[in-house]
Amino acid sequence: MVGTRGVPARYGGFETAVEEIGRRLAERGHRVRVYCRRPADQAGSGDTVDPDVYLGMERVVLPAARRRALETLSHTALSVGHLLRDRTDVALVFNSANAPLLPVLRAARIPVATHVDGLEWRRAKWGPVGRRYYRAAETASVRLSDALIADAQGIADYYREEYGARSRLISYGAPDLSATGSDRLAELGLTAGGYHLVVARFEPENHVDLIVDGYVGSPADRPLVVVGSAPYSEAYTQKIRRSADRDPRVRMLGGVWDQELLDQLYANAFTYLHGHSVGGTNPSLLRAIGGGTATIAYDVPFNREVLRDAGTYFRTTTQVAQRILTAEADPGDCARRGTALALRAKDYDWDVVTDGYERLARDLAARSTPGPRPFAGRRSPAARR
């Protein structure tokens, strides 16, 4: 498994998927190797490879350039170099940004599937050059992968319509947080059902600023708890903080890496507000519904695919305020929505997800995958019609 920050999962959706899928594959008797980035505080050390074992997975720890534009690709390049020396039957590459390394794997005759994630070129954090790069990398992933992995139907539809490309639809799993307690909330001065929650990296397409602004403009009774940070988005982080500083009801917690405490925050929130707009199926959203928490989400197909009619949706600050006030005015309906979402979460099962990855890995090793569409390019609007 190549292209993520690795395990233990402490960052985002890819890392969560790698940990949940990788440990299950290891339990089933497969040898699983995960390439991991060295923490920033170790980046200057002389030792460049630190193998270890975590939940049955072999970890290979390598450095990465500490610049946003180079971090992912630099680490993946070192990972691929290691992979050529210590070969495997199959490589699973996460993030289409790593597409420039795919020719190396193909030349080495290592079957490879690329998890293409969301539409990275639409992310506001990238400038014109970055967006052009991600657009080109997306096309290269279609051309050079033996298989594509999509984690949401909307992503699979996009690659079919844009490239005429096949993909394996394998979503993420939702944890069952139904038995999660609430005793840790007192550490933060919170009580079960007594707060609204946001958990997100501070990036424009996650709309944390819109959520905070909408909340600040409402007369909501319950405080808004904001969990998250961003390593490369200081200006955006400051924008959020300026809004939050205007209202003592907003609690900015920064990153919360204690998984037990984070799970209790998800499972005991009155509502969870989810602003992600350009990814596929989001693990943070699945964690919230796994806790049976009523969810107010940014209105895009990926979020509607998960929440369906049990969710409520927003696009503007005014709508954020309205959805929060509606929830507070009718706690019974809010609880019913949470119960419906807990049932919906059962459709997202990590064991079933792992079955999909196991089948894909066997197909790749047997070289029985038909490929997405070799040498495909973006289709014209007329062709897509």
TrEMBL record:
One Pfam family linked to the record: Glyco_transf_4
Keyword vocabulary terms for this entry: Glycosyltransferase, Transferase
Region feature (Disordered): 364-385
Keyword Ribosomal protein: no
Residues annotated as domain Glycosyl transferase family: 197-333
Superkingdom, natural source: Bacteria
InterPro entries: Glyco_trans_1, Glyco_trans_4-like_N
Residues covered by the Glycosyltransferase subfamily 4-like N-terminal domain: 11-169
Protein name: Glycosyltransferase
